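Bench notes, bay 3.
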Amino acid sequence: MPPNQTIISEIQFYPVKPKDGLLGFISFVLDGKFWMGSVAVFTRLEGGYRLVYPTRKVSGQNINIFHPLCREVSLQIEDAVIKKVEQIFNEDYESTESTEKMW
């Protein structure tokens, strides 16, 4: 593993009924040391996906719970998560397509 490589593993996607671009939430393990959860997955207007990290509203102010500190790690997480989400959507599409052919 390269020295600056972050390991993103155990990615789980929890779909929700789509609303305002929200597709669901993900959790993952970062470097085998931290479980990260409640990260929202939204569609982008121009295509693709974006991640929104959890916040908590305290006295009318949004407080970040956690988020990547550098762009490189943010992109590594985004790439790993998008691969997982697209894999799940492709599996669901192929499963639906196979069922439709049976009828």
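Next record in the batch:
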Amino acid sequence: MSTNVFEIIVAGGGPSGCAAAIVLKQAGLNVCLINKEYNMPYKAGESIPGATMRLFKRLGIDTITDLLDDTEYKRCSANVSSWGSDDWVYSSGMLNPEGAGFHVDRVMFDKALLMKAKALGIPVYSAMIDDVVLNNDSDVRFKVSLREGEIQEVSANWLIDATGRKAVIGKKLGYKRTKVDNQMAVVNWVSFPKQDNDNSTRIKSVQEGWWYTSLLPGGKRVISFQGLSDEIGALYKNPEQLLEKFNSEAILPYKLTTQSLLHSNAVEAGIAKPESVIYNGVLCVGDAALSFDPLSSQGIFFALYSGIKAAESVIGCLDTPLQKDSILNHYQQLIDRVFMENQKSRKYFYSTEMRYFNKPYWKARRAF
């Protein structure tokens, strides 16, 4: 078995992992990325708020065109919602000083960030994580076994868990993760007619949950429904029923049929978090640190933010070892503050929908 030793291992090659690895490499540290290849053409999570541009600059990315070409993103013109009433409320992106943001081809976005990391000379292991061993008495604290044909091993004293909601590192090391919410979502990608040029984000609340849709690059539109698991399971198994329900809400000025359906997926869409985002040289980032309710549209932003902040924390610990505890506690406090602020906003928005107060989905929102 071959073993390669690094200062830091980043497990997970999504936005949070790439952001962490890029910042660590910029600081001159010996870092590697472990990335299980994603071979599907569709992936949920396409919204990039305008404020994300500040985070891009920290990664050496001046504009979104440094990552994606014109066919891989669309500007979001506005947020349009029917929430708490049947009326549609329009909020123009022009009113946001940082811009309304973008809708991206998420698969291409993730690939572009990974290419940015590779271009900096960061070794990327395209492999599954087979095992993680922690030994605090060893000169090298972590040994991570990779399954890529023959088993390889990488070692380091720091490990960043960027493995998403699955939180692979935490699970293998036996750390607990708590589900704060049990929300699910069924996500559908559809083709759309040529006359559809609505580049807004649209959401609408209904008795069983809420709808979301936005126009994507490449001739696709994403439609998702957020609800309780039984409802989501039924709609996932019956796409015709799902589209009928969507059409009945008049969210778009045209009807969709199953002939327009390109792909469907059912995913967890609730809030989940570990007891701590720091433990024994492991720092959690992205969904492994805190998975969001999709109502926030903060998934990509938080992924980049937490990846950057975790990397800066490791850099600080290596530069000033005597301040290690203080630096790591500060990172924990940052994530805790994000969680508390997100919960406050989330509770407020769900509380403004009073028409379905006693319906199971909306009662469940008030419980968290």
